[in-house]
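Hello,

Our lab assistant flagged a job as stuck in the queue for most of the afternoon. It eventually completed. Since we weren't sure the result was trustworthy after the delay, we are filing this so someone can double-check. Below is the sequence as submitted and the structure that was eventually returned. Let us know if re-running is recommended.
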Amino acid sequence: MSEAAKPPRPQFRNINITQIAGYRMPLAALVSIMHRVSGLFLFLMLPFILYLLDSSLLSEGTFEYLKGFASNWFVKLIVLALSWAYLHHFCAGIRHLIMDNHIGLDKDSARKSSAGVLVVSIALVILVALKLFGAF
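-- returned structure --
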């Protein structure tokens, strides 16, 4: 074939910010992003958690007040979100530590380990939710 008869080669360019919604990320990328988001959420909520811990240790009356405050369904949802953030961050952190030792770096292993992180962290959060909302 001559040079003139060849079809033009496709051009691959970087993704623009407006195209990000249509881009399908691999599961390992989603787990990595959720690891960062959960870490940020835990970091931002740390002063509030420490304030509640300090307040609960002041006296028996403040402990009973905070116990009643924590029985509200909205507060339970916040505690559940904090539990998810901690459990997901913990499981994904173990995955990253294993990958730091050059184990499971190929595409198939990374997909399986990221799916494992999601399954384990969601299962643990479901157990926390059942306990938090009084199923057992």
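-- support follow-up --
The delay was a queue issue, not a problem with the job. The result is valid. The chain has one domain: 27-132. The chain has a mean pLDDT of 90.
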